[in-house]
Amino acid sequence: MNDSTTALEYPANKLAIGHARMLDAIRHRWSPRAYSDRAVTSDDLTALFDAASWSASCFGEEPWRFIVASKDKIEEYQKMLGCLVEFNQSWAKNAPVLFLTVTSKNFAHNNKPNGYAMHDVGMALATLMIQASSMGMHAHAMGGFDRDKARSTYNIPEDYDLGAAVAVGYVGDHTLLPEGMQKTELAPRKRKPLSETLFSGTWANPAAL
Ligand SMILES: Cc1cc2nc3c(=O)[nH]c(=O)nc-3n(C[C@H](O)[C@H](O)[C@H](O)COP(=O)(O)O)c2cc1C
Asked: 14 Cβ partners below 8 Å, 6+ apart?
């Protein structure tokens, strides 16, 4: 973690519990709704999207595209904020950066449907999230946005699918969130045990590692 790591940014009950050798950046990643007004610089953003671009993809096609809006260009920022559902607008408006993930529906090499398009943009986003976490930032994905509005706002071609909207920034004061969200912001994070998600031999048979 870099110098920006503070107790506020990493509340203890948000840390991922698991194997001791899990990467710090994975242990510290979570999806905050409270963001501080600390700016995310262009250099920070370049690091995040460079990291995403080094994700694996089917046929190495890099089907992902991203549309980014920072608060330093407020009109651009408001345009993207306006694509989010009201619930997400109520907290994401404090994040200094928003972006949309988009993915090509078809392979470029043969124009046939790319069944891995959403898979691959998800991998790129996961890579970006871990990079953000390693830099003391967080990125929070949102399915709650108006896809038709985003498509027309940004002239996204029909042969591209929209993935998620994402808020990026540094963790802020949870008491500034709308009241209903404050409890979730502090709640411990949980995960299913591996016995429910990792099988061997046959479906639903927990792997004995
Ligand atoms: C594709 C996707 C869509 C999501 N949509 C929303 C959303 O619209 N609003 C929201 O507040 N969180 C949203 N989330 C965040 C999840 O609720 C969150 O990742 C999940 O509860 C696990 O918490 P963690 O990321 O802190 O581990 C979304 C996450 C993903 C990956």
From this structure: 28, 30, 188, 189
Q: Please tell me the total count of domains within the chain.
A: 1
Q: Which residues pair with 67 in a beta bridge?
A: 100
DSSP 82: T
* Distance from the alpha carbon of residue 33 to the mean position of ligand 1, in angstroms: 10
User: Is 137 among the domain residues?
Assistant: yes
Q: At 20, which helix (H) or strand (E)? A: none
For residue 127, the enclosing domain spans 12-178+188-196
pTM to 2 decimals?
0.95
CATH at residue 130? 3.40.109.10
Q: Are 168 and 96 in contact (CB under 8 A)?
A: yes
- 118's CB contacts (< 8 A; 6+ apart) are 103, 161, 163
* pLDDT tens by residue, 106-158: 999 999 999 999 999 999 999 999 999 999 999 999 999 999 999 999 999 99
The closest residue, in CA terms, to atom 13 on ligand 1 is 142
123 alpha carbon to ligand 1 midpoint, in Å? 15
Structure tokens at 7: 């107790």
- DSSP codes joined into one string, 98-130: EEEEEEESB-TTT--B-TTHHHHHHHHHHHHHH
Q: Which residue has the tokens 């979570």?
A: 30
